[in-house]
Amino acid sequence: MTPTSIGSVIDMVGFRVTKYDPGLRRPDGTYSMDEWTSVSDVGRAYNGKIVSRSEYLRGETNYVQAVRCFIGDSGLQKLRVTDLQLNEVRVESLPSEIAQETLAHVGSAVDEIDVCGDDLDWIVRLALREAIWCRLKGDQGFYVHFGYDYYMYIGSDEMKTVPPLLPSGIFAEVFDSPHQPEPSDEADS
Q1: Which alpha helices (DSSP H) does 34-151 contain, by range?
Q2: Distance between CA 54 and CA 20 in Å, rounded?
Q3: Where do the structural domains in the chain lie, given as residue ranges?
Q4: Coil, helix or strand for 155?
Q5: Closest CA to 48 of 34, 31, 32, 30
């Protein structure tokens, strides 16, 4: 799929939202740079540079802000947590402060609840930290899905453009989510 530029009009309604510059993708779609892809990469070296806690949190915050931009652009106030899966939090693989925060907030993740504001921010952070997996749903078919390696997918029935104020270092490419529920899953909801 080809990336879209900010503000361009498209026929599709889904975006792959990442920290990965689409200009650095190979023709087969794989990413050409060696970059951190998980909270467990804090303290490891990528391209000769150690990933710091503050660098990781800056990247995570950019994703949270990107979700807020898409929500705001869609006129939504809240999203519903669905298909929640709680994962084991491996505190030994996380910096201590991030591990403590994660453990303190993971109990707030509840399936089939509406979240907004800070609660929504924490659901996004927990999903990015791989402490949970879930889908987020809103009106007009709005969704946020989380993939591996810091891939996030956002779209809706109404969305046609990328919000103009995405955080610096966040890219949105036209892309269908590979995490769409099966039709039988939707019938059960």
Answers
A1: 53-74, 96-106, 117-128
A2: 18
A3: 14-188
A4: strand
A5: 34
Task: Tell me how many degrees the CA angle 126-105-46 measures, rounded to the nearest 5.
Answer: 40
Threshold 0.85, pTM exceeds: yes
- Number of other CB atoms surrounding residue 105 within 10 Å: 19
Q: Sorting pLDDT into bands at 50, 70 and 90, what band is 184?
A: low
Is residue 3 pLDDT above 50, yes or no?
no
Structure token digits, residue 128: 């990015």
Of 1, 16, 10, 6, which Cα lies nearest the Cα of 143?
Answer: 16
Q: What was the pLDDT predicted at 1?
A: 42
Work out the angle at residue 120's Cα, subtended by the Cα atoms of residues 40 and 183, and round it to the nearest 5 degrees: 90
Contact (CB, 8 A) for 50 and 43:
yes
Report the alpha-carbon distance of residue 146 to residue 132 in Å, rounded. Answer: 10
Given a cut of 70, is residue 11 above it in pLDDT? Answer: no
In one letter, which amino acid is 70? F
Q: Could you give the CA distance from residue 151 to residue 148 in angstroms, rounded to a whole number?
A: 6
Q: Is 46 helix (H, G, I), strand (E, B) or coil?
A: strand
Q: Is the pLDDT of residue 101 over 90?
A: yes
Phi, psi of 74 (to 5 degrees): -90, -5
Quote the DSSP letter at residue 166: P
Burial (CB < 10 A; 0-12, 13-18, 19+), residue 181, is middle
